[in-house]
Amino acid sequence: MRTSAMGGTIAGLTAVFLASAIGLAYMFGLTPGIVSVESGPHMPDAPAGEPVRNVTVPIIVTAADFQLSPNIQSVSQPGMITITLANVDNVDHTISITGIDGIVKVSALGSAMTSFQLDKPGTYEIVCSIPSHVASGLSATLIVGEQPSADTPNP
What we know:
Blueprint: H1 2-27, E1 57-64, E2 67-69, E3 72-75, E4 79-87, E5 93-97, E6 103-106, E7 111-118, E8 122-127, H2 131-135, E9 139-144
Parallel strand pairs: 1-4, 3-9
Antiparallel strand pairs: 1-2, 4-7, 5-6, 5-8, 8-9
């Protein structure tokens, strides 16, 4: 059955390509259906000293051989993050962040995108919530903002 193996490889590569393209589009400020955004009076400036939290940060993660790659991600400040998971495994996975509401199923050899609001700096875990998958190593660390001091509990 060489044809089905080749089809799986092509589907996996297509998923990785699409996830990369979507992530790059978000990184350059493009969102689906919006070609350009002009600033105007409806966009007030953030007060001095306040972090700007209206920026969505894209993160692209690949699930392959029951591992998430890259296994450490970081963003400079709390806010909205969008995670795109490209699943090149032949089994379904999920994507969630420990302690944050929300979970998305990602079909085998597929991809999916979801957003999470992270309001506090700290260290979070991106995981596949299927118990045997987490035990196999399907998790990654997400560092948000400055590292908390030893006295500050993580979320």
